[in-house]
Design brief:
Its cofactor is Zn(2+). The chain is an alpha+beta fold. The protein is built from two helices and ten strands, in the order βββαβββββαββ. α1 (56-70) packs across α2. The structure holds ligand LPXRUNBV.
Length: 164
């Protein structure tokens, strides 16, 4: 019978600092502010004959690179139903309710998410990690993003059972 193991990757160095605002409705949003986000992961994989599963160092490096890609940016939800984002010279012009905001494009990332929340950041990072891990023999992956101690969102993927 196949044996599975669960690896947890919860490193202090897996973090990014970013500015964002959560959108609550068509008319309500937070003011722009920042967090030091922490990223952790759970990986379920088969244990081989020599007592070794997926090399966690591989996933540590991938998570680190994903964190670095978001670090020190303003993160905007490009797929929010409540805001419109246009490129205007060196800036992004964002229209939300009666607000008109401009962000320097080189300091800003437009992410394919519906809100700049921990639930959407974790889903985005999960997709990115799965793309980097294509071909790996994994059964489950969960990525969590915490905006501070005691508050986080997690997104999970599970391999579809075959041949039922
Ligand atoms: N479901 C979600 N709810 C909220 C999110 C989120 O990502 N998903 N995010 C926020 C805020 O952006 C963020 O948490 C700021 O909240 P705030 O309470 O002002 O400050 P802290 O995070 O620092 O929390 P403390 O408990 O005050 O330390 C809100 N909701």
């Amino acid at each position: 019978m196949e044996r599975l193991t669960t690896l947890y990757i919860d490193k202090e160095s897996h973090k990014f600092s970013a500015a964002h605002y959560t959108i609550f409705s068509a008319t309500e949003r937070e003011r722009l502010h920042g967090h030091n986000y922490s990223v952790s992961a759970k990986i379920v994989a088969p244990i081989g004959d020599n007592g070794f599963a997926a090399d966690y160092n591989v996933y540590k490096r991938r998570l680190k690179s994903l964190c670095e890609a978001l670090d020190e940016y303003t993160l905007l939800a490009a797929e929010s139903p409540y805001q419109r984002i246009e490129r205007e010279d060196a800036c992004y012009r964002v229209l939300f309710d009666s607000d008109e905001m401009r962000f320097l494009a080189s300091d800003t990332l437009l992410l394919p998410i519906r809100n700049a929340t921990v639930e959407e950041f974790s889903a985005y990072l999960l997709q990115q990690l799965l793309a980097l891990s294509a071909g790996d023999d994994l059964r489950e992956v969960r990525v969590c993003v915490a905006s501070g101690p005691g508050q986080k969102g997690c997104a999970s993927w599970r391999q579809v059972e075959s041949g039922a």
